[in-house]
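It is worth pausing here to work through a concrete case rather than discussing structure prediction in the abstract. The textbook approach is simple: state the sequence, then state the predicted structure, then interpret. We follow exactly that order.
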Amino acid sequence: MRLCLAFFVVLGAGTVSASDVFPQPPELRPDVDFWVSIFTEYSTEEGVLHDNRNLGVVYARVAVPAELSRRERNRRIANRRKELQSVLRTLAAGKRDNLSDEEARVLALWPAGVTNKTLSTAVGRIRFQLGLKDRFRRGLERSGRWRDYVNDQFTALGVPVELAALPHVESSYNPAARSHVGASGIWQFTRSTGRRYMRVDHVVDERNDPFAATRAAGRLLAYNYSITGNWPMAITAYNHGLSGVRRAMRRHGDDALVDILRNYNGRTFGVASRNFYVAFLAAMQVDQNPDKYFPGVKPEDPTKYAAVKLTSYVSADGLCEATGVSERQIARHNPGLQATVWEGCKHLPKGYELRLPVAATSSPLATLIAR
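Step two, the predicted structure:
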């Protein structure tokens, strides 16, 4: 069963609604709308060229079919960007009369009276964003496997259950997701952050275990909130890091959400960090209205698991023999186990929480392990 409940907290004599917990100032509405369109209108075979600070300014749609080589795809994007930059330079030079159709179209994307300086600055801010429609739909389907667990863990930690939408932004709920900076799993923990909350080594990497990583994500988000005092900054810190967010808050104000996202120029506060909260708001909007954006989408059913903590070290071969379950099946349901275990170099460690589908074994898992 897929749960997506509105979050309400009792505070004194009143209640605070989800819109208060996750504020969406009018100034950020174009940004949220932009990410909703990326998640629901554009597939991974197309994308848009847009202004990286004013997301409501979308210059062009660019097709990047899967059959294109990376080089051809980059060439196509670069050529269209150069065309748009040429138009912006012309407009920035002050041209406002006798405009070509393309010049008039680009100028109309900006507010009336836009200055030449603004247009000149925009020349260097054209960014390409790939569409994610097909990935987001698949993520909505996959999320059913763990959604009840996420909600239970977050509720126990006092974390709003709406934050279960974050993996849509991070990984599309894909346990095998890996980033170019080494982040891993559905919650995209880096090794350094992961080690604060989980076991991450050459035997077990719990970042890849959706259950262990969910507990860790809840604890990290709760900690961020305890320091920042509000969820927009706690969420931004999940991507950017707490120290960087605290610097932004000291510079602009604890609750200066729009000012921080628009104007903070921290050295590493790039496009990803600046957009993380608004992308979350967009993902939450889609996640809470799946039939509106993806009619007929059906979340997968969660697997009914038996879980046992190992009381001693166990070899992969010994485990397979005891349970009658293949290595491949065990590995599939325990993605935190590293290759060293399956290669026979290391045993499953004492204290490891083993999970197998109830239907996979002929006797209760605890009984089989105890033997």
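Step three, interpretation. The chain has 19 helices and seven strands. The first helix runs from residue 18 to 21.
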